[in-house]
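Researcher: I'd like a candidate sequence for this fold, 182 residues long. If you have to choose between options at a position, lean toward the conservative one.
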């Protein structure tokens, strides 16, 4: 099948979503463990299928959440990547990106998120010349917090909400930090 591969690591490749990803995509959206700190409740199959249509839309540029494939098994194991860092008014912060890591629960604990994060940091900083990568994490999501700290992210501030609170992390591109006052 002809599709765009964005980057590859030793064990994983990241590509556009394709129609064959539907069942694996929906399984993640319907998994209470995956949804625990991202959205809270699992989606129904119908809701997941609806969202999948968006995942299939062509991506302009290189910032998106990509299908994540475990190469040795040719299996869809998640969706990950760096996507545009949106402002509250819908605009985007130029030269910035947000990191998203979603691994299917049967594949947790194998270092996939760490390997993915390292690859997208390299890609974002070295090839896309992004100045800053951000990520917001539910304060209860200990595994995700552990992973982004291991990737070198710094805590910028904590956003406290009635239902949920979020840590806001950032990682600045060391080769352009002199240009970055944010
Ligand atoms: C968070 C997530 C991406 C991690 O994926 P993963 O592939 O299992 O992560 P890795 O295997 O690379 O790393 C997991 C790390 O967490 C550590 N860990 C495991 N349980 C932990 C816990 N309760 N508290 C802190 N750290 C923990 C592991 O030891 C490992 O660290 P190490 O490599 O230093 O030993 C995955 O759990 C996931 O997709 N969760 C659901 C979606 C989600 O919450 N995404 C994050 C949105 S911000």
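Model: Candidate sequence:
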């Amino acid at each position: 099948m002809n599709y765009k591969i964005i980057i590859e690591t030793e064990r994983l490749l990241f590509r556009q979503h394709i129609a064959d990803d539907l069942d694996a995509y929906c399984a993640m959206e319907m998994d209470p463990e995956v949804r625990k700190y991202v959205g809270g409740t699992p989606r129904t199959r119908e809701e997941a299928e609806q969202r999948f249509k968006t995942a299939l839309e062509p991506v302009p540029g290189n910032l998106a959440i990509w299908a994540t494939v475990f190469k040795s098994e040719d299996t869809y194991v998640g969706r990950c990547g760096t996507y545009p860092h949106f402002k509250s008014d819908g605009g985007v912060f130029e030269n910035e990106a947000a990191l998203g890591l979603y691994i299917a629960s049967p594949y947790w604990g194998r270092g996939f998120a760490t390997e993915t994060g390292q690859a997208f940091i390299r890609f974002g900083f070295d090839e896309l010349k992004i100045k800053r990568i951000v990520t917001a994490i539910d304060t209860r999501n200990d595994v995700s917090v552990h992973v982004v700290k291991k990737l070198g992210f710094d805590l910028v501030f904590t956003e406290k909400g009635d239902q949920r609170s979020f840590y806001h992390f950032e990682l600045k591109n060391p080769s352009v930090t002199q240009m970055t006052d944010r």
